[in-house]
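User: For a reading group we're discussing how well predicted structures match intuition. Take YtxH domain-containing protein. Before you show the prediction, I'll give you the sequence so everyone sees exactly what went in.
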Amino acid sequence: MPKENSNSGVVMGAVIGGAVGAVTALLFAPKAGGQLRSDICNQLQTIGSRAKEMAGTIGTHAKELAAAVGTHAKELADNVSEQTKETGSKLQEDAADAYQSVKSDINSMAPTERDLKKLGKEMDEMPTHSELRSKGQVPDPAQ
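Assistant: Thanks. Here is the predicted 3D structure of YtxH domain-containing protein, as structure tokens, for the group to look at:
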């Protein structure tokens, strides 16, 4: 059961219990009819004013709670937003570093188009692993 429903149930129970108790006490008190009706009316007015006070207090507390929840939710949203920005920046930096690393590796193997063509011809002339094995040779595991 949500806390708001639980609190309102307690308040409602207190109001009803107070009313029943007051009416019961007045009914069993030895008084004249006019005096009894007047006492019942006074007690009901007292209960009504207490109920209004309690409702006002509950309303104030509910507003304070709603404001606190709203503030906390905004703080959480701001925190998530900041962490997302930081993560995005870090990912961009990592991607740029990886790009530069790959780019430098490519340029170290064949810095020019001519070198790249030469490297391609050399690789075409190299025997494959299966060709080396068929000749009884052991292939280089790094290749």
